[in-house]
């Protein structure tokens, strides 16, 4: 995988955590965040090119909370799942786990699947 190259910076929250824990420098973090936003823009642009216009409705490519929960509940869920992701990221980056790199993709994969299913 690319984790050893990119550090598995899945979103800006992971990158901010990396700066706060001195895993990356602030300058490198800015580069990562710019790359994350450019990747999102590029991904959406490819969708616009490849998918017919009649599939695009006002909510296309938007993550919206279920109508049964309030905005405050949705915010709480986002905070909780982001915290879980950050805890796993910090555990992977912990120097005590440096000798266990073989399971890093599995750890990330299981966490992403779990929080995606819960949220």
Summary?
It is a multi-pass membrane protein. The protein is an all-alpha fold and 119 residues long.
Layout of SSEs?
Blueprint: H1 3-6, H2 12-20, H3 26-50, H4 71-93, H5 104-118
Helix pairs in contact: 2-3, 2-4, 4-5
Describe the model.
This protein is mainly α and 119 residues long. It has one domain: Up-down Bundle (Glycerol uptake facilitator protein). Helix content is 64%, strand content 0%. It contains 5 helices and no strands. It has helices spanning 3-6, 12-20, 26-50, 71-93, 104-118. The longest helix is centred in the first third of the chain and has 25 residues, at 26-50. It is globular and about 50 Å long. The relative contact order is 0.13. The mean pLDDT is 84.
Core attributes:
119 residues, mainly alpha, 0% strand, globular, Aquaporin_transptr, transport
Q: Which outline best applies?
A: globular
According to CATH, the homologous superfamily is Glycerol uptake facilitator protein
Order of helices and strands: HHHHH
Report the sheet-strand fraction.
Answer: under 5%
- What is the straight-line distance between the termini? 26 Å
Number of strands: 0
Q: What's the pLDDT, averaged over the residues?
A: 84
How many individual domains?
A: 1
Under CATH at level 1, the class stands as: Mainly Alpha
CATH topology: Glycerol uptake facilitator protein
Low confidence ranges: none
Global Rg: 17 Å
Structural class: mainly alpha
The major sheet is characterized as:
none
Family: Belongs to the MIP/aquaporin (TC 1.A.8) family.
Membrane topology: Multi-pass membrane protein
Keywords: Membrane, Transmembrane, Transmembrane helix, Transport
Subcellular location: Membrane
């Amino acid at each position: 995988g690319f984790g050893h190259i990119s550090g598995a910076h899945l979103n800006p929250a992971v990158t901010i955590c990396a700066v706060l824990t001195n895993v990356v420098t602030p300058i490198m973090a800015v580069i990562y965040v710019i790359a994350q936003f450019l990747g999102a823009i590029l991904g959406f642009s490819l969708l616009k090119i490849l998918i017919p216009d009649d599939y695009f409705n006002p909510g296309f490519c938007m993550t919206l909370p279920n109508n049964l929960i309030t905005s405050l509940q949705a915010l709480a869920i986002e905070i909780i799942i982001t915290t879980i992701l950050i805890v796993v990221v910090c555990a992977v980056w912990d120097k005590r786990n440096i000798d266990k790199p073989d399971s890093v993709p599995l750890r990330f994969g299981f966490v992403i699947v779990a929080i995606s299913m819960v949220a």
